[in-house]
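Section: protein folds

Sequence with per-residue C-alpha cells
===
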Amino acid sequence: MDIAIVGRPNVGKSALFNRIAGRRIAIVHGQPGITRDRIFAKCEIHGQPFRLWDTGGIVGAGETQLTADVQAEAARAMEESDLILFVVDGQDGLNPMDRELARVIRKLRKPVLLLVNKIDDPKHEARADE
C-alpha cells in the first residue's frame, strides 16, 4: 500500500511524515519550499507494511519551473497512492489553494483523510468547525 501526504507549503507535511516514519528523514523548516523531491519511507503499523510519501507543497498556477516540477511529483504521488493524507493548516483556515487541491483530489476518486494540523492551541478551537 502507498500513502501520499499532500498539501500546500508549510502545513506540516514533512513533520507528519517523520512522525509516522518514526525517524527524521525529511527536513522540517519554517521556510516554504524546502521539500522539493518526493521521498518515501517504508513503514509498518499494526503489522501492516506500507510506503509513505512526503511531497513538496502544492501552490497555485503561475509559478516557476521548479515549482511546476515539485507539483508534478506531488501529482504523481497522489496518482500512484492508495490513500491520500490531505494536510491543511488549522491556524490559517482553508484558503483557495486548499480548495483547489481538494477538487483535484476528488477527481482522483481515491480514499482521502483530511488532517487539520497546527490546531492544538486552544485559541484556535473556533476554527475547527470551518
